[in-house]
Amino acid sequence: MKTFTFLCLSIGFFWAQTTRLQAQTFSLESVKSYPFPTELTSSAKGSRIAWAFAEQGKRNVYVAEGPDFTPRKLTNYTDDDGQEITSLSISDDGKWVVYVRGGDHGSNWDDELPVNTMSSSISPKVQIWSVPFTGGEPKAIAEGDAPVISPKSDRIAFIKSGQVWISPTDGSSAAKALFSARGTNSSIEWSPDGSKLAFVCDRRDHALIGVFADEKTPISWIAPSFSKDDSPHWSPDGKRLVFVRTPGTGGAPDSILVRRHRPWSIWTADVASGTASQRWQAPKTLAGSVPTTHGGFNLHWAANDRIVYLSYEDGWPHLYSMPSSGGAPLLLTTAPFMAEHITLSHDRKWLLFSGNVGMDNALDIDRRHVVRVPVDKAAMEVLTPGAGLEWMPVVTGDGATIAMISATAQRPPLPAVRPFTTGAIKVLAQNLIPASFPQNQLVTPKQITFRSPDGMTVHGQLFEQAGGPAKKPAIIYVHGGPPRQMLLGWNYSDYYANSYALNQYLASLGFVVVSVNYRLGIGYGFKFHQPDNGGALGASEYQDVRAAGVWLSEQPQVDASRIGIYGGSYGGYLTALALARDSKLFAAGVDIHGVHDWSQQRGGGGEASTGRFEKIPDLEIANKLVYQSSPISSVSSWTSPVLIIHGDDDRNVRFNQSTDLVRRLEKQGVPMETLVIVDDTHHWMKHTNALKMGNATGDYFKRKLMKPRQ
């Protein structure tokens, strides 16, 4: 009787604690109901801006105009159909809004192919559309991608099947091929007067800069070489071009395991003669290699006849400026922080960007704020300091206003404006946040730091609701990328905004959640972003993930026997690696479209089968290391239960990565559940599919971790 009474009291106490804890919960549907803005842009004249909004999967274009900047819905797509909006732009005269609808432009391959999340018998198209800024019915211009409106606002050049096409902006006549150039053409750039078009023609082992004038004039090739030329930009007078040159493909097979400098240089060319001269060469160091953060080179021809660009050479992705004739570059951004989402003002006098810098540097390294700097002087200003987050700034054509995306730890991202000179931020479209959104119930994540076994300092964010039992279950979240950074608030990527919402939801259920920013990620300098022995050549970043799990296990409020782990993409890879190597530390996991065999994802071994007499000197050693860095190499020690989720139109991580792992885990006898989401991609283009994934993750962890282990 005493035993029965004690058991009843224990069960009653557990359910009382669980009920009291879950009284603070909200549904994933409610926390995922926020509108998410992307594609913010401005016209070259006046004060007109436009952006795209995803409202529970229904994606539309919105516009606003100064001085009031009252948002106005310009399109009326009413279905959660997975059709994204990209390449949003406003014509220079402000009269037209142009965009692409369809495709998956965050993918690694086939981004220009249609996405059919509805499994419709008639596949959607990837199309270019135009609509008057003042309102009207959008008009389909043509199937194609990457549209660029002429400075005269009358024509749109775009890419279709690797060739350049042209159409009237108003769609008054059918689009047609502008010219034919052998190879795959991209990076269209109109001359300032709209009379010429510069472009990149990729011919596989080399790439050329071409200039098209008219149908009667042959294409002019700018200083053709055995190199790969990229990123052409016109001088303000339209007589010259600046571009980047990198080595062409070829040379004797070299070591895979030895890290080496990836050279690049900046050239300017006289368009009339086609001759070019090198103006700057990157330092021959690892940090001086081709930059790998947002926007790459971020090359522009600015005012005062200056060239601006981004380089990682001093250990941080910083902005530089130099005379177009060459000479010593001027470092424009000097603090230890990164610059991304970089734009040049329409008058070419200012660079605006988002940076992890502000008044409180200890915390701002895990935030984003809007920063500006003149193109010819190291006089940087942080325009939006504080506890919020701001990114993707653009200047209106009249130079009076800066538009941006703004968020906090609780309020989801929304477009915002502030005067260019000085003044407060005005947040737009707050009325579009649904009444059901649990803004006041979201926690403010806390910054944490810890050290990995090799001494690397690692940042993370801790999500935890107050109260609850003395010992709580916990979860490690591992972002994908890997060149990403989770922040102390909503993320600027829709994919990682999903993750932020899911982490808030898991915290509301009573889990202690840690989001870990492991090495290979951005925001903490070159040595962190490009570490030794990372990825498929050693997985050194896994020790950061494991260290996060150990840190959690040592917290007094955490039950060390109930720590789970989840992540998507590269985060799925590290989740699988954690479960395979450390099932004693991680009690359960959710592996979302992760990589499990690097040799299959990368097509490894191809060099060995080319039939060349010359061989890669360390290929055998590298292949072994690739295998050892893959979760499949440690399946024999995998015992923790796992949920595996994958969309079968994934264009970033091949679906067979999960098919293969499922077969291996079945043979191993590992407790496993699976969820296949048919006809969606890596990015959960359909809102209801993102909910399906998130609810499956939350439900799995509730079943596996919420109840104390016996």
From TrEMBL:
Q: Which SUPFAM superfamilies match?
A: alpha/beta-Hydrolases, DPP6 N-terminal domain-like
The reply on keyword Manganese is no
Q: Which domain of life is it from?
A: Bacteria
> Which InterPro entries does this entry report, sorted A to Z?
6-blade_b-propeller_TolB-like, AB_hydrolase_fold, Pept_S9_AS, Peptidase_S9_cat, WD40
Write one Pfam family the protein is assigned to.
Peptidase_S9
KW Acetylation (keyword) present: yes
Its Gene Ontology biological processes? proteolysis
MF terms from GO for this chain are:
serine-type endopeptidase activity
Q: Which residues form the Peptidase S9 prolyl oligopeptidase catalytic domain?
A: 504-705
Which keywords does UniProt give here? Acetylation, Hydrolase, Protease, Serine protease
UniProt xrefs under PANTHER family: DIPEPTIDYL PEPTIDASE FAMILY MEMBER 6, SERINE PEPTIDASE S9 FAMILY MEMBER
What is this protein's function per UniProt?
A: This enzyme catalyzes the hydrolysis of the N-terminal peptide bond of an N-acetylated peptide to generate an N-acetylated amino acid and a peptide with a free N-terminus. It preferentially cleaves off Ac-Ala, Ac-Met and Ac-Ser. Also, involved in the degradation of oxidized and glycated proteins.
What this protein is called in its record is: Acyl-peptide hydrolase
**Species assigned in the record:** Spirosoma telluris
